[in-house]
């Protein structure tokens, strides 16, 4: 894979991510929730190699922690694959 194709793939992934966020926002507006339904949230923000993990409860924080580990492994493979 050359540099130009990696740039194109990156741009496509960014556009796809923006589209998914937009579609999920629209779907959440029109979707009716059941009375008493509980909404759980969580996420991971990667600042270089340092993950910031947040969640509305312990389960979501654990899922965020696992996602952070997966992201760090993927980043390691992508950045250091030329060394191996």
Automatic annotation (TrEMBL):
This is Membrane protein. It holds the Pfam family DUF131. The chain crosses the membrane at residues 6-30, 60-79. Keywords: Membrane, Transmembrane, Transmembrane helix. It comes from Methanothermobacter tenebrarum. The lineage of its organism: Archaea, Methanobacteriati, Methanobacteriota, Methanomada group, Methanobacteria. NCBIfam families: TIGR00304 family membrane protein.
